[in-house]
Specification:
The protein is built from no helices and twelve strands. By secondary structure, it is an all-beta fold.
Length: about 120
């Protein structure tokens, strides 16, 4: 008989497995193991900037990181591929570019902000 501690979606279970003489394995119903000490609360999320003018095209962060530079401003016309801002992720600088031609409706982040993957960085009209 072997006992395993398994974590599924943050829930910890203690599972006992019996091995039969034929090599067949049967598992007892899992019972909840004592809760592990909760991890420290994640750092407070950076306060979201007041939503800038809503544009029809959102420019999202492709990965979590820190904003190093904002190269465009609200009202500025941009072409597809123009650099809007620079995002540092894993010690690499990544250019965040305009996905299409348009005008910057709003910039939702500032230099130094930490962002999560998928966060809206800017919007275009």
């Amino acid at each position: 008989m072997k006992t395993y501690t398994i974590t599924v979606n943050g829930n910890v279970y203690e599972v006992t497995v019996e091995e039969g003489a034929t090599g067949a394995v049967s598992a007892a119903a899992p019972k909840a193991a004592p809760k592990a000490a909760p991890a420290a609360a994640p750092a407070a999320a950076p306060k979201a900037a007041a939503p800038a003018a809503a544009g029809s095209v959102a420019v999202s962060a492709p990965m979590p990181g820190k904003i190093l530079a904002v190269k465009a401003s609200a009202g500025q016309a941009v072409k597809k591929g123009d650099v809007i801002m620079v995002l540092e992720a894993m010690k690499m600088e990544n250019d965040i570019v305009a996905p299409e031609d348009g005008t910057i409706a709003g910039i939702n982040v500032a230099v130094g902000d930490s962002v999560e993957a998928g966060a809206t960085l800017a919007t275009l009209n």
